[in-house]
Each structure stands twice: as structure tokens, then as C-alpha cells.
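User: Um, any thoughts?
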Amino acid sequence: MKPVDRISPSWLWIIPLLALWFCLFLGNRPFASPDEGRYVEIPREMVASGDYVTPRLNGVKYFEKPPLFYWLQATSIKVFGIQEWAMRLWCVFFGILGCLGTYLFGRRFYGHSAGMAACLILAASPLYYALSRLIILDMPMATLVSLSLFSFLVAIHTPPGFQRRLWAWAFYGCSALAVLTKGLMALAISGPVILIWAFGTGRWKDLWPAYIPSGSLLFFMIAAPWHLLASLKNPDFAYKYFVVEHVLRYTTSLHMRTQPLLFFVPVLLLGLFPWTSLLWSAIRNGVRSDFATKQRGVTLFLLIWAGWTFGFFSVSNSKLVPYILPCFPPLALVLGAYWVKIHRPEYAASARQSLLIFIGMSVILSMGGLTTLWMMPHLIDHRPHLWADFTVLSGIFLFLAGLAALFLRQRRLRSALATIPLAAVVLVVSVIRLMPELQRPSIKPLAQIIQAHKKPDDIVGSFKAYYQDLPVYVDQVITVADAKGELEFGCEAEDCTQWMMDEKKFLQLWRGTKRLFIIARATEIEALAQRAPTFHYVPLATNQGNILVTNK
């Protein structure tokens, strides 16, 4: 193992650079539905009600996730109000924290240059960057899991004493915070990784002493209070939270998120591109270096971490793209350690192989993407300018591939390698440009019309759909007619019929004395008018197939 570099303030310049990088145009799009609307509305209702124990979505109990992220979002609401950029700050914070943790860990075990390379590779990975700008729980959870595993490995390599105890406590503390962010799934990543590494390398004796009494006490002091309070306050909490949202979500297709076994293969290849062109050589070099330099299994630990995460979610019956995020920090470290070596003359053959992979992937992805859009134009319906955007992006990557091939032929290896980080920057800029267009149409334009016209006694709602971002933009719980979806459990747990109602009660309300502002698909409003001749409405505005109507 290389001697540990003395930590000096000179590396702190990376913090403002990362802050600028991750905050670029952070408020350039409305809240994405459903996720961003959901994870803003729940903390909004916490602030409005003062109840920080029982999460509620549109006034209905919502026990799918624990509350740490909601609490953090609530602080942003109190400080900044509900602003798109402000509500994304915590995800940016955890994105930056993950990069800094990766740097500091890499610096300790691989040296300053490798740590910095790993940090920048992680920051310039398109999926990691995109998820740092999306209000979901995966970035905070992935960062906290990463910090817990980093802390564990540092503790193992620290001589017995108070400093080692602090690192062990950091492992327990970060693990507890991860559980409080996204549930027991966090332990399903870190626990098996540690055990597989310890027993697979014969290092199980290094797990002792693990400071189990004090560490467990710290863990439960952080993670247990909310779970106990929620259980005491809500008798229906335990079954919904532990059984349905943990066991059944993973083992069944209850949430209808079943995907093929190899679903995460293209997600990882594209989400880490263009760095994936270096991945095979980086893994091979890392394993060799692990033994040659007596790194004591550090690289192997990182590969087990990435491999277990990939395999664990691949066999799950519930798959979503962000689930793979915990793979990125360990792979960035393996790539960073390789990147500082690839420019050396003895790695020329390996560098040429990686460049050929980069050139091949760039050509295949560029041509394949354009061909797919040409054959399936419905993928960009109502957004014809996306064709131009993807054409320009494909042209840039074909140019970079050609440039890399030219430099490679001229034996200008360093110049050829420079096209890879350049391609990463292009992809991240494309993420900023394309995210507003690729997300589902926002209800914000119609909500702004409601806000401009509604009075305190007016009713705001939706028909045949629950628009997750509507209560956020109108700053109130909305009436939902003939649609429950993920709110069904909460509707059964309590009497919510005053604002969660069927079509018959909705028509009665519509004919009442109060004014209603209702958003629905235009086709649904037309169908209702045909079914119920007494249903008369005044259209106010339309947007992306949705219509805003009123009864007065």
C-alpha cells in the first residue's frame, strides 16, 4: 500500500468547482412527475401540518420510504420556499459529497492523483450527474452507503485505537442514515459486500474487533426512533413498510416494475459512458495491482461492492434505472487508479485497446441512436426538435471518435486519450440540455392559471389521474376523483373520502355551489360529458393533452 498522503488544504479547490459543476442551470425545468412532485409534496405537507412522523402524500398516509430526505427537504422549504432549484439542492449536496468521499478514499489508498481522477470521473458520469439533479432518494442513499463502506475499509486499515473506533462509528452512523433514507435495502448492499470480501479473502479475522456494542448502539439511536414512533402512531405501518415495501417489492411484481435479468447491463454501460470503454482494462489492471503492490484487497473490495450491487438488483423483481447508482463510486475508483497509469509507456497496448473500444462504442451508439429514432419516431412525438438535438450529439461523438482514431494512427496517445474526458463533458452538457425535454410534460402551466384565479373557498383537483406536481404548485392538498394508484393504501387506512372520491360523488360536488378547477386528460373530460349529460364545463386552458376546466 502506498503511504498515505498528508491531507493539506490544497485539494479544497475542488469543492467550489464541483458546486459550480453540479449547480449549472439547476432550476431550468419544472418538477418532473411523478418522482419530483412526490418528494416535494410530502415535505410540503410536513411543513404545513407540523407532523414529521407520519409521511403523507396528498393528505394520505404514505409509508413507502423513511423520512430523512423529507426532513431535509422540509428545511429547504422553510429557508427558500418551494423553488425548483432549491428543492434540488440536497441531491446536489449528496452528489458532491459522494465525489469528495471518493476522492478522499482514493487518495488514502491510491494516492492524490488517482483519488482526484476518480472524483472527476464520477462527477462526469452522465447517469450520476443526471440523478444528482433529480429529486429522488437514490443519490442520498447511494452516497451514504458509499461513505459507510469507505469508513469500514479505512477502519480495517487503521491501527487499533481511538481513530479506528471513530472510523468504525462512522460506518455505523452512515449505515443508519442510509436506512433512514431508503430503508433496509441499504444494509442489503453493505452487509453482504463486507461478508463476501472478508470470507472470500480470508480476512474475516479483521472484522474483530468491530466495536459491535457501541456501534450497534449508535446505529439504533439514529435509525430506530422514527420507526418506533411511526409504529406506535400508526398500527398499519409495520406491515406496509417492512413486508410490502421491502420483502414483496423485491420478491414479487407487486409494483409492476419487472424487467429482464440483463436490464442493468445497458444502464451501466450507457450511464458510465465514455468511461466504460476503459472499464475492462481498469478492472484487469486493478486486480493485478492489488496483488503486486499488496494493497490488501482494496481493489477486490471495490469490485465485490460493484458486483454485488449489480447482481442484487438484477435478480430483483423490481427494477428502476437509479437502483444501480451505488455501483458508480467503486467503479470510479477503479477507473481513477487506472487513468493515472494509462499514460505511461508500459500501458500503451492497454491504452490502445481502450481507445478502440471508445471509438467503436461511440460509432455504434451514435448510429444506433439515430437509426432507432428514425425507425420509431413516436419516441419523440410532440418534440420534433429532439431529432436535431440527437443528430448534433451523434455528430459530435462521431467527430470525437474520428479524432481519437486519427491521433491513434499518428501514435499521439495522450491526445487520443484526451477525447474521452472531452466526450464525458459533452454528455453532461447534453444531460442539462435534454432533461427538460425528456421528462413527462409538467402540469405547471395549468397550475399557474389556477393560482392566478382561485379564491380560498375554491376546490382544486384532478379527474381520472393524480398529478404528483399539482398539489406542489397550487400549495394545497387537491381533490382527486376516480383515481388512487399508490394512494390506495392510505385511502384504506383512513377516511379520505372528502377529497379522494369516486365519479358519482365528484359529479355531485361539480353540481354544487363551490367553484372547482379540475385538470384531466382532454379525452377523459369528453368521455365524462358523454356519460353524464348534466356535466357541463367551461374550458380554461389546454397543455400537452391535459385540459383545465371549471364548473362556474
Notes: The radius of gyration is 26 Å. The chain has a mean pLDDT of 91. The chain has 24 helices and eight strands.
